[in-house]
Write a structure and sequence with these properties.
The chain is mainly α. It contains 5 helices and 2 strands. It has one domain: de novo design (two linked rop proteins) (Up-down Bundle). 71% of the residues lie in helices and 3% in strands. It has a two-stranded antiparallel sheet. Helix 3 packs antiparallel against helix 4. The longest helix has 29 residues. The protein is elongated. The protein starts with a helix and ends in a 7-residue tail after the last helix.
Length: 144
Amino acid sequence: MRRRQTIVVLALLGLLVATYLWLYKIGVIGVLQCGTGGCEAVQASRYAELFGVPVAFVGVAGYALLLGVGLVGVQPRFSADRRVTLVLAALATMGFAFASYLTAIELFVLRAVCRWCVASAVIITAIWVLALGGLRRAPPAPTR
């Protein structure tokens, strides 16, 4: 249960970071508070959109899904449900893979690092580790 609660808190934090970046990308926020200039370079690159959708919005959607599933998972009637653990692990794995790809783009293609993107990558990595740890400890699903 504690693992899922931690995932919920981290997903909320990730949602806030992704929302901040998305609001910048769509012009609601005028200046990113980054300190290095790398954030603006990353957000202005062609890699900041995926099929016309801002990558930050993909993060908003991903963290919102993780938050929703995590909130369901902390409910007493779902606390031992292995399906919740599997969904959290699947979502976290997709998020971790996507964040790894984006981090590689920042480092090796753009040669610019966004501190907010790094924060999001650290958050999704922590969620991924927790979710995979839940797979090892989760009891088998009850048979009917």
